[in-house]
Design brief:
This protein is α+β, with helices and mostly antiparallel strands and 462 residues long. The protein has eight helices and 20 strands. The N terminus is likely disordered. Helix 1 packs across helix 5 and helix 5 packs antiparallel against helix 6. The protein folds into three domains: 102 residues, no CATH class; 144 residues, Copper type II, ascorbate-dependent monooxygenase, N-terminal domain (Jelly Rolls, Sandwich); 151 residues, Jelly Rolls (Sandwich). The radius of gyration is 23 Å and the shape is globular. The chain binds heme C. Heme C binds next to helix 1, helix 3 and helix 5.
């Protein structure tokens, strides 16, 4: 093991503290065993018989890459723990930067190569990684500002038009520590049926907000929400695994640090009836003693008519929760669970029309902290396969919804499939209260000591 690794992990602990990051989930999220493996693998190779380019400099070669792939978070007001905006800043932590890009910890982009192209992909090409690493190894030269060809940094994108903003009814500060999963209910004010065509979640307090999921609950289900709220003495209701808790919900969007939140694909919208409610599932991660309260809001782009309705196709084996059949024995380092079905037959009340092809727009995948890798794909009628999402190194802290640059056609007779691989070995356990937990038998559930294997596709009919 080398000093870079030790240093970067130590650093991670520090920045995490500062960030109110993912302490509970260090086991998988941060400084995970796979990081360490990656490092030792790269160090197992003979030091360097590769070609190190030595004519690289900051302004000409490195700044353009950082501007595109790093500064959305590592600049003033961004969620990164430090800025990478000047030569001095980058040079002062150059080895850490080289290590973070070499091991692909940074930028935090989950999907692997060779599957689909996604909107907002910030990952680096092998050539860009080599440029940064070579620059560091050849002395991190500054060059001349006149050689700067970089484009201005890209800020995370927002929706193109804000028609309505809803806020949590009151600020909330009575967080359970270190993690609190709480759902807040907000009235939908429109008196006619409307379509949501884009959403943008704005966290109220970035020091504690770790993850937000927004869903719509239709008028026929709002009584159940009221019951959940009434049973809980605090505002809203507690909800670890999902906002649903037995209620039928429609997913709207999710927020993780750095995520762009853009309009839904052209013309597509999610219908919302008058009398509906919006539920925000907040994951708060609280490390400091008395954090400021949070009052998160969500903005919407709304239209009264749309060309297409955006629909959801769930990916889950209904037997997993029903019969507790998603077993992950204690100590096992590679446990796979997979499921596929014909979407025309339908699942959980959602289906595609039998005879019509549909266009898949987005894919997302959800596991908890013992998730190791996961994928979603189409099993074509002719026996071939189309990869939709491949996450080679699952990180609970950076899950998102990925939108295809080119929507993918799903034709009658095709099946959709999901596979999750879990690592429940002693090395891959979360650290809770400073102590690495012992592996226990896991199964499907909403708790921190439960797992999930859940995917979702959104689609429009052709
Ligand atoms: C989506 C936001 C985001 C982007 C984009 C991003 N970072 Fe980070 N970065 C973070 C956050 C948040 C942390 C704090 C640690 C964590 O949560 O993993 C971090 C931590 C780091 C660290 C210290 C911890 C470690 O893993 O070594 C380095 C170095 C770093 N980033 C470099 C980069 C570089 C270089 C890029 C671009 C190639 C980049 N980051 C892009 C958000 C981002």
């Amino acid at each position: 093991m080398n000093t870079t690794t030790t240093k970067s992990l130590g650093w991670k602990w520090m920045v995490l503290g500062a960030l109110a990051g993912c302490l509970v989930f260090l086991g998988t999220g941060c400084g995970s065993p796979s990081d360490i493996n990656n490092n030792s693998n790269s160090n197992a190779n003979p030091p360097d018989n590769r070609n190190v380019s030595t004519d690289l400099n900051y302004y000409k070669d490195v700044k353009p890459i950082l501007n595109r792939s790093c500064l959305s978070c590592h600049s003033s007001g961004g969620i990164g723990p430090f800025e990478l905006t000047s030569y001095e800043q980058v040079k002062s932590i150059k080895s850490l930067v080289a290590d973070a890009v070499k091991t692909k910890r940074m930028p935090p982009w989950q999907p692997g190569d060779g599957c689909q192209e996604y909107v907002g992909d910030s990952s680096l090409s092998e050539k860009e990684i080599k440029t940064i690493v070579d620059w560091v190894e050849s002395g991190a030269k500054e060059g001349d500002p006149s050689e700067d060809q970089s484009q201005p940094p890209v800020k995370p994108q927002g929706i193109s038009r804000v028609d309505l903003t809803l806020k949590m009814n009151e600020a909330f500060g009575k967080f359970k520590t270190p993690d609190d999963y709480r759902c807040f209910v907000v009235d939908w004010p429109k008196t006619e049926k409307m379509f949501i065509t884009g959403t943008q979640i704005v966290p109220g307090n970035l020091k504690v907000v770790h993850h937000v999921i927004a869903v719509v609950v239709g008028p026929s289900e709002v009584d159940k929400l009221a019951k959940l709220e009434a049973q809980d003495p605090e505002p809203g209701y507690e909800c670890y695994g999902s906002p649903a808790q037995g209620i039928r919900v429609t997913n709207l969007s999710s927020w993780v640090p750095g995520a762009s939140q853009i309009d839904f694909p052209t013309g597509a919208g999610i219908p919302v009836e008058p009398g509906s409610k919006i539920v925000l599932q907040m994951h708060y991660n609280v490390l400091s003693g008395s954090p400021e309260p949070d009052q998160t809001s969500i903005s919407f782009k709304i239209d009264s008519k749309v060309d297409k309705v955006l629909k959801l196709l769930p990916l889950i084996n209904p037997q997993w929760p029903l019969t507790q059949s998603m077993k992950i024995p204690a100590g096992v380092s590679e446990q796979k669970h997979s499921f596929s079905y014909d979407p025309a037959v339908g699942l959980l009340g959602q289906s595609v029309t039998k005879s019509k092809p549909v266009l898949i727009q987005t894919a997302n995948l959800h596991m908890h902290t013992r998730g190791k890798s996961g994928k979603i794909w189409i099993k074509r009628k002719d026996g071939s396969q189309t990869c939709l999402l491949n996450i080679p190194r699952w990180d609970f802290n950076w899950q998102g919804q990925y939108r295809f640059k080119t929507p993918v056609l799903l034709e009658p007779g095709d099946q959709v499939a999901i596979e999750c691989t879990f690592d429940n070995s002693a090395e891959n356990q979360p650290i809770i209260g400073g102590k690495k937990q012992k592996p226990v038998d896991l199964n499907w559930g909403e708790g921190t000591n439960d797992e999930m294997c859940l995917g979702g596709l959104t689609f429009v009919e052709q």
